[in-house]
Design a protein that fits this description.
With about 60 residues, the protein is mainly alpha-helical. It has a domain of about 25 residues. It has two helices and no strands. It is extended, with a radius of gyration of 15 Å. The N and C termini lie far apart (about 45 Å).
Length: about 60
Amino acid sequence: MKKKFYVRPVSVVLSIEMFDELKDITDASNIAISDFIRNAIKRKLDECHNNHKKNKVD
C-alpha cells in the first residue's frame, strides 16, 4: 500500500486574479497547484525558522 505523505487538507480562498495567476504559472510549469502551494509554504516556513534561529543568536 502506498504511504500517504500529505494527510491534512487545508482550504484557502483566493481572489480571481491570484487564482488565475497561480493557474497560469502551474500550467506553464506542468505542476499541480497543490505542489506549488506546498513548496511556497515550505519556503516561507524555512525563512521563518531561519529568522527565528538568527534572532536567538543575536
